[in-house]
Amino acid sequence: MKKIMISDFDGTIYGHNRQVNQEVIDLFHDLRKRGIITAIATGRSLFTAKKVIAPSFPIDYLILSSGAGLLNWQTQELLYHSHLSHQDTRTIANRLIEGEIDFMIHDKIPNNHFFDFFRFSAGNTDFHHRIDIYQEYARQAQPDNYIYKESSQLLAVLPPKSDFSFFDQEILESYSIIHATSPLDHQSRWIEIFPKNISKAQTAQLLCNFLNIDQQNVMAVGNDYNDLDLLDWAGSAFIVENAPEEIKPKYYNIPSCHENGIIDAAKIWLKLDKF
Questions:
Q1: Does domain 4-82+198-270 have CATH number 3.40.50.1000?
Q2: pLDDT digits (tens, 9 = 90+) for 24-51
């Protein structure tokens, strides 16, 4: 009976100390020795994932950009990726421009670490911080003369305590809208807009179909809003203690990222006393 463990990365196994603890790496090695497929499902692009995940990291697959891409980690073959048409990109961008919301348009996978940004607010510090970090790949855009193209996704950055109701508008219902807590200031809300049906769960299902793994034999671990669809879909779902309080009650709670909670989850899933 095939099994797969799918873990989020930032805040789930990769903490503020900017590393994955050796005990967690040993867990992934052990699972693979047991014949269990291992995967990471992250909001990171392929470029930023490779900055923090070593080539030797013991996973079989990487679900990247919140489900917009799928990579065989062992062969580095890009198995799947999606994108928005230039017209969809224009439609979404026009709504964000009308709302004067700070946002970015990312190039298609695998080059979606490059982006064009539209800035309307001087006080959106998290948005400005992200531009500073990726200034080598960031291009400032002007609404009046921008030429729209195919894109992997649009990313809007909203300061803490912002009103998110804008993203409930009917015109955006044709797309997949994924919320996440900013990995930079841990307070702002990042809202990514993808083609319809793109999510970690959808790409995980695609992977399981390819590997002939039943959904009930999937273990998923997460820590944030953009993991919820994956946790809801998986046969066994766990959430770390450092997750937002309002999303914790629905799932099996485990210790925090810094306390290697994923090891506890794997023990429970496999009904083991120890690894």
A1: yes
A2: 999 999 999 999 999 999 999 999 999 9
Backbone angles phi, psi at 79, to 5 degrees: -85, -25
pLDDT exceeds 90 at position 20: yes
The answer to whether the beta carbons of residues 169 and 196 sit under 8 Å apart is no
pLDDT, residue 157, reads 95
Strands 218-222 and 138-140: unpaired
Quote the CA–CA distance of 21 and 18 in Å, as a whole number: 10
Question: Which option is the CATH number for 86-195: 3.30.1330.40, 3.30.465.10, 3.30.1240.10, 1.10.405.10?
Answer: 3.30.1240.10
> Please, which contacts does 172-181 make with residues 24 or more away whose CB atoms are closer than 8 Å?
172/92, 172/95, 175/84, 175/88, 175/92, 178/43, 178/66, 178/225, 178/226, 179/225, 179/226, 180/43, 180/66, 180/224, 180/225, 180/226, 181/224, 181/225, 181/244
